[in-house]
Each structure stands twice: as C-alpha cells, then as structure tokens.
Amino acid sequence: MSKLVTGIVAHVDAGKTTLSEALLYTCGAIRKLGRVDSKDAFLDTDKIERERGITIFSKQAVLNDKVTLIDTPGHVDFSAEMERTLSVLDAAILLVNASDGIQAHTKTLWMLLRSFHIPTLVFVNKMDMPNTDKATLLKALKQTFSDGIVDFTQTDSDEFSDQIASTDDELADKYLDGESLTTNDIARVIKQRKVFPALFGSALKLDGIESLVETLCTYFSPKPTTEDFGCIAYKISTDRQGNRLTHIKVTGGVLHAKDALGEEKANEIRLYSGDKFETLKEVHAGEICTVTGLKLSKAGTTYGSCDIHFRSLMEPALIYAVHHGQEVSASDMLRILKTLEDELPELKVQYQSLQKEIQVMLMGEVQTEVIKELLKSRHNLDIDFGDGKIAYKETIADKTIGIGHYEPLKHYAEVHLELSSRERGAGMLFEADLPVNELDTNWQRLIYTHLVEKEHVGVLTGSPLTDIHIRLLAGRAHLKHTEGGDFRQSTYRAIRQGLMKATSVLLEPIYTYEITVPETSTGKVMSDLERMHGSCTITDSKAGFTTMTGRCPVATMMNYINDVRAFTRGQGTLSVRVDGYEKCHNADEVIQRIGYNPDADLDNPASSVFCSHGAGFVVHWQEVDSYKHIQY
Over the stretch 383-411, which tens digit does the pLDDT of each residue have? Predict the structure, then answer.
C-alpha cells in the first residue's frame, strides 16, 4: 500500500517548521526536537535556510509507514517552490497561527488547495499564546473558508455527527434513518472536499500533534494509482557532492533502479528524509522518491502513462537585469543561471540581445538576496540586480493568418498558421493536425515542436506572448531540399508575420490585494486606488479599522506599502499577490518608453526568404502573402 503524501502549507511565521519537527518527533522519526532559532531543525538542511530562519526549498521526510511529509516554504517570495509540490500531494495540512489569525497569504493558499482539489486538514497552531479563543477562531475559519470546516477534537459527540451529515445528502439520509456514520463515510466527504477537519494545539508544546497524526492516518488516503507505469518530476535539486537530483512521484506501476526514463536512465533511487537518504531497488505507485542520472528532466516532466500536468497560478511580475563582475563571462554567467533555473523554473533566465543583458524574473526582495547567496556559496560569484521592471505580456484581439517561407538555395519550407485570441488567462495553445495527404506526419510533428520549443514574443514591446491559439493551416516541404531547420525558420517567421498583421494588445500583471487601515485613512486609500487605476471593495469594518480588497496594476501599486506605513504610522497592513494579466492601463506610454522596433529584431524576423534564378532573396512581411506558394 502506498504512503499518504502530505504537505504542510502556511503563511510565514505560522510555525510550519516547528510543526514538522513535532510530527517527526511524535512519530519517532527523530529523537530530538530541533528549533528554528537554534538552527538545528531537521528539515532546514540548507545553510541559507538555517541562517535566515525560513524554509526556502521544499523537503521530504518519512513520518511512519503510512505518511510521507513534504515541508514547503511559507514566505510569499518562494510560493512557486511551494506550488510545485501541490501537484503530487494526496493531502495538505493548512497551518494557521492562532495569534495572527487568518492572513491574506493563508487565503491564497486556500485558493490554491481548492484549485488543485487537495483534501485539507486545518491545524490552528500556537493555541498556548495569550488571547487565543478556539470558538472565535473556528467561527472565523468557517466564515472565511468553508462551512465544511469541522472541529475534530470531539469526534464522538452528536454535534460532530450533525455537522458531518449536513455536508452530504447521502450521509444526511443515513443519519436521519438512525444509522451511525462510519470512518469510511467521513473519509469519503473529506476526500471530496466537503469536510475539512480542524484541530487546535501547539506544535512547540507538542499539544494536539498525536491527534493530528491519528486524523491523517484514519481519514485521509492516497490518490488512486494505475497499473501502467508513470511518474512526474516535481522538483530539481543538487546534493552536496554536486549530483543533479530529480524528485518524482510514481503515479502508476513500479520504478526500478536502472529503468529508462525517456532517453535517460534512473541510475540510483533514493528515499530522502531530511538530508539523509537510503537507496532503494524499486519504488511503487503513489510514493515519492529521488532519482540520480537524469540531465534532461525539468519540474513538470512526465514519464510513461502520467496524466498529472503542472499548473502555475503564481508567477513573478518583475524582471531584473543581472549585473556580474568581469571574473565571469556573460556566456558562463548565463550557463550557471540556466542550471539554477532547473531548481527555480520561475527565474525564466534569458539573454536579451537588444539590451545586451541577462534577465531573470523574481518574486521579491528576499528571493533576490537568496539568489545572491546561492551563487556566492556554490560558485563564489558576486552578482547584483538592477531595479525591477514590470514583466509585460502581449496577446492579440482578433484572428489572422501568418505565412512563413524559407527558401535559400537548396532549402525549402513553407508554413501557414492561424493565430486567434483566447480568453484572458488561458495561455498559449498550439495545434498541428492536418490530413496526412496535405503534409506528412513527421513534418507536422516537427512544426509542432518548433511552436512549443521557445517563448515567442510580441511585436509591441518584445514581451512574451500569451492567450493565443496557434493552429497549423498548411505546410509544404520539398522532396530533396527540405531539412529540419527549414521548418524552424518558416514556423518562427509565420508567427511573426501573423503578429505584424494582427491587432496586438499589451497586458500588464495585476495584484489582488487586501489592505487594512484605520478608519480615518479609508478615504485616502480609496482615492489612492482610483488614482492607481485599481478597484476597491470594503469587506470589513470593526474596532476602528477598515479592510478593503480589490485588484490593481502591479506597476502602480508595487511600492504602495511604504506609503501605507507612512500615513498610518505603521498601523496599516497591505498584502498582495499577482493574479493574472489584464489590458495595460497606459499601453501607449509603455510602448513608447520601451521603444521596441520589431523590424530591427533580427532574432525574430517577420520577413520570408524566397528563391529566384538560383538565389535567395528577402521579402518584407507586408508582401509575403503575394509570394506564397500554397493556395487554399
């Protein structure tokens, strides 16, 4: 039987690492309790984590023969690391700090758990602190998250059975007929996310920890698995010897050491618990492990029959230029950062030829400092970052056809693509599925590969494309002269030519925010938000404070916390998270400021190359339609 893979998610300083220590100690996995402030926590194995007192990288540990635990970062700057683990969890423990109450980031975590449909247990920590009231906290949890949150500290009471039965029609009928609810009944509604067990205690005092373990083992179960082999890589890391590690979850069948994974081989299978590991000969469906020997794996790579797909709901909104010293060349710096990008895919490392600089995307100031420390400790490199710039994106507002033709001497390929807009937030969709009599399957597959292999950019600012459906309409190859690279050229040029003809739209990242200020500052905040092109709804007003929520462009709100602290004299709070992209509020100003010239971008040409009298010649994108070879 596979183990339950459980992750702890929480707002920073909720006591997540302390809870991990308490669970490990209670289950007998460790003999001594570590402390964050003592820098000896079992799962904070990285030197930077111990020095900063925060979790940066997700870690796994074996609690017992039923449960494997994954500890995830709590700081919002490392939300992407936390989010990568959600796809492989069977269950989650959402940790709430009884002293601080439900924080804005805790609400974000709840939203993510709902989106990934993960059965969730809520543990309210630090109940040993003064002025904590269980009834008040339980009421707040129900009001904020779900009426399905049920106190599991008194499971033998009539009130408990009443609450469980009220969440499901089948259980309600059974209960009204006088039948008792079974463990399987309760487990079913938990798995269906109709019920969310709530427990209260103190991780530091080991209060409530045994009940937490018992609840996990009794009512939660692993996700179904398949007989056919499949697995997904959810994290890439490096051990102290420099070995590249791929952390995977087996979703079906059995993985053996030396088995082929794609084009590579799983040299060694490791089962980690903190910084220690044991080698295994095989791993069964439902279990997580770590594999050595894979060089091509990425977070989200699937092998065999695996239907899990990574989704990223949280992403950086700022781009930073990397400033490095002369002791390392730009090419070497790019290579080092690309290696780090395997561990932190959200970096999206790229070299911008127009600006002649390396750029990365970062979540915030803390992650910026951590990246510096990682490069110093691993490569003895000192780097700095420029000021953060808004990470814009581009899409189109209509439908168009792009044509790309590449025919220098002894080369030939022509591609016709349909580009159409998708709903906001849908991302890119690529399709290459023509009848075989129109274009051989191998050429169609090659075109599809070229569609998905790179991040295509728009023609307004050179920003990445999003929310566009690109569909192969037609293609032509030459029996003797077509090579693989010819279709790459024609595919890229077709996209660009289509973009040049389309109505492009500039998009900007948007914050979802929650702000709490003294009532006397409410008017100022509402006025500020109107000036910042944001929306505003008052959601709460009590004890002399007003809470407002809404959406606002990152560009106008990114430094607003400093203003809030100033005019409220430190009494105001502001929490934000990037929540998708919308049409840029000042597109003309941004486009003019960036000054991107698509015709001058030699890395992304929109023109085509045709051949006449044995020589190739360039045709400007505006004239390509009249030179095309395929008529339909």
Answer: 999 888 999 999 999 999 999 999 998 89
Please tell me the predicted confidence (pLDDT) of residue 53: 67
> Which residues are CB-contacts of 605 (< 8 A; sequence separation ≥ 6)?
492, 493, 496
Q: What is the distance between the alpha carbons of residues 495 and 133, in angstroms, rounded to a whole number?
A: 60
CA separation for the pair 332, 336 (Å, rounded) = 6
Contact criterion met (CB below 8 Å) for 565 and 572: yes
Please answer whether residues 392 and 463 qualify as being in contact, where contact means their C-beta atoms are separated by less than 8 angstroms: yes
Cβ neighbours around 100 below 10 Å, total: 13
Nearest by Cα to 56 from 367, 379, 348: 367
Cα 257 to Cα 210: distance, rounded to the nearest angstrom:
36
| C-beta pairs of 537-542 under 8 Å, 24+ apart in sequence | 539/514
Question: Whole-model pTM?
Answer: 0.82
What is the C-alpha separation between 112 and 86, in angstroms, rounded? 8
What does the longest C-alpha to C-alpha distance in the chain come to? Answer: 91
Which residues are CB-neighbours of 260 under 8 A, at least 6 positions away? 266
Distance, in Å, from the CA atom of 517 to the CA atom of 570, rounded to the nearest integer, reads 9
| CA distance linking residue 435 with residue 32, whole number of Å | 66
Q: Tell me the pLDDT tens digit for each residue of 419-448.
A: 999 999 999 999 999 998 899 999 999 999
Which residues, including other chains, have CB under 8 Å from residue 495's CB and lie 6 or more apart? 402, 404, 417, 419, 451, 456, 470
